[in-house]
Amino acid sequence: MALRFGADVCTAKTDYGTVLLDQRSGEYWELNPTATLVIDTLMAGGDEAAAAAAVTEVFDVTADQARADVGALVEQLRAGGLAV
After folding, report:
1. Please, which of 18, 43, 45, 49 could form a disulfide with 31 given CB 3.0 to 4.6 Å?
2. pTM > 0.85
3. Rg of the chain's alpha carbons, rounded to an integer?
4. CB-based burial of residue 66 (10 Å sphere; 0-12 exposed, 13-18 middle, 19+ buried)?
C-alpha cells in the first residue's frame, strides 16, 4: 500500500536521510538513508514489497530482513500518527 504523511507532517531531506516534523506535537523524527529510500518508494506509489526490493538492491541486506524492516518502519510511522 502506498504511504502518505498526514497534513501536519513536514519533511526535509538532509545529507543524512530525512527529518520529519510532527507539527501537532513538535516532535522530530530522523530517518536514515535506508528509511528514506523506503518512504520515497512508498510515497511514489510502491508497496512494501517494492520498498523491500529497493532496499536489497542498494544495501547489503537479505530480502527477509528488508521486508521485516520495511514493515516495522511503516508500523512505527502509523503508530506515531505520522502516516496514513
Report:
1. 18
2. yes
3. 12
4. buried
Other Cβ atoms closer than 10 A to 28: 11
Beta strand segments in 1-84, E: 9-14, 17-22, 27-31
Tell me the mean pLDDT per 10 residues along the chain, length 84: 89 96 96 97 95 97 98 96 91
Report d(CA 7, CA 5) in Å as an integer: 7
